Amino acid sequence: MKSLSTLPTAFPHPYMPDSGDGRYSVEHYELELDYTPRTNRLEGTATLRVLVLEATKSLRVDLHALKASKMKVRGKVHKQFSQDRRSVQLKFGDRLEAGARFEVEIEYAGRPGPTRSKWGQIGWEELENGALVASQPTGAPTWFPCNDRVDDRATYDITFTCDKDFFVAATGKPGRVSSRGGKRTWRFASSVPTATYLVAVHVGEYREYKLGTGRIVTPPAQWSRVRQAFSPMPKMVEVFEDWFGEYPQVDLTTVVTEEELEIPLEAQGMATFGVNHCAPDEQRLIAHELAHQWFGNSVDIRQWADIWLNEGFACYAEWVWSEAAGGRTIAECAQHHYGRLVRERQDLVLADPGEKQLFDDRVYKRGALLLESLRRTVGNDVFRAVLHRWVTEYRHRLVGTEDFLAVVEEVAGIPPQADLWKAWLYEKPVPPLPPVTSA
């Protein structure tokens, strides 16, 4: 059952207002999926445990291109629904009151594929030998019906049936695998609150290999190369646990595809890399995606405008790992990227970058540089105390920029009205980087 700190807001977000429905929240998804890679055919039944947030006589469920064929509400067939290319609309004869809880079951099928967005093609992607999901920020409805809002997090049970020659990895702790005929069924359970864009599935001619406390999923032919590239991961976990606290997820799975991917992708308890990310100079990307398990997947934002709390912290973690691994120090990394950032356009407000600039690299680097400015202002020990308080107090909770400023005020004594925040968060010009402190 959701607490106040995990409930979404019952109003449209200024970013992506057409995604999701603020009149309700989903507490749990049960997904039963059957996929045929040869034809890219997906058949599914999604059961959504719904909590009504605002009195209404209709609800909207995001579902892109796939066809909903049958609907049940409270276990009974529900015929009052319609569908367009982006969603299913349910209508009710009697008004649903705020606080009501019930289940909606949706049977659907089709050939899933990515959807176009301002940030390129996102969602379900068919591969040469299988499929993967890259949903950030609004691609989840390409493969399951959902309330696709960044602030609506739920738990999940996923049952995925596929041809027996394929391996399946999905969000959640792996469970029992069973076989019947020419198919195999895989089960996954996620007990931590998870946003829809952080739910992923991978289908491929893979095998599973242990690495530290986690596992690597990759084609056998490239395991030797992958093992060498990802061998630092167990040490990364140790370093980040020292800096940020205990690893917060129920699973640690790394998928390395045989295809080249433009960028790595994080999901809850999971990260995906292309074979091209096995190069020796790509360790920063491994550190970045691993850090998201703390920042973005555990401590998660309630609105996309605050994405710097995800990406700035993950970028800073790259510098933490660089120093721990004997590379550039945190201060040297910061100085290097500051020199590059001041030569970029000065038209971005970190606390509200705008929908189109959501994944602009300047958001990542400016967010990390803000953190380094804070460290240089309060000293290393106090800064690390801030990070520990932040991760511990808001473990698996929704946050905004104001929450981080409140933690800093409590631990370090810097008020939310301080010039530090005004310059880095709310003004466009990149401010000076404070000198390195020895405190």
UniProtKB/TrEMBL annotation:
<dbReference type="InterPro" id="IPR001930">
    <property type="entry name" value="Peptidase_M1"/>
</dbReference>
<keyword id="KW-0378">Hydrolase</keyword>
<dbReference type="InterPro" id="IPR050344">
    <property type="entry name" value="Peptidase_M1_aminopeptidases"/>
</dbReference>
<comment type="similarity">
    <text>Belongs to the peptidase M1 family.</text>
</comment>
<dbReference type="InterPro" id="IPR027268">
    <property type="entry name" value="Peptidase_M4/M1_CTD_sf"/>
</dbReference>
<dbReference type="Pfam" id="PF17900">
    <property type="entry name" value="Peptidase_M1_N"/>
</dbReference>
<dbReference type="InterPro" id="IPR045357">
    <property type="entry name" value="Aminopeptidase_N-like_N"/>
</dbReference>
<keyword id="KW-0482">Metalloprotease</keyword>
<protein>
    <recommendedName>
        <fullName>Aminopeptidase N</fullName>
        <ecNumber>3.4.11.2</ecNumber>
    </recommendedName>
</protein>
<feature type="domain" description="Peptidase M1 membrane alanine aminopeptidase">
    <location>
        <begin position="236"/>
        <end position="413"/>
    </location>
</feature>
<dbReference type="InterPro" id="IPR014782">
    <property type="entry name" value="Peptidase_M1_dom"/>
</dbReference>
<keyword id="KW-0862">Zinc</keyword>
<dbReference type="InterPro" id="IPR042097">
    <property type="entry name" value="Aminopeptidase_N-like_N_sf"/>
</dbReference>
<feature type="domain" description="Aminopeptidase N-like N-terminal">
    <location>
        <begin position="27"/>
        <end position="198"/>
    </location>
</feature>
<dbReference type="Pfam" id="PF01433">
    <property type="entry name" value="Peptidase_M1"/>
</dbReference>
<keyword id="KW-0479">Metal-binding</keyword>
<keyword id="KW-0645">Protease</keyword>
<keyword id="KW-0031">Aminopeptidase</keyword>
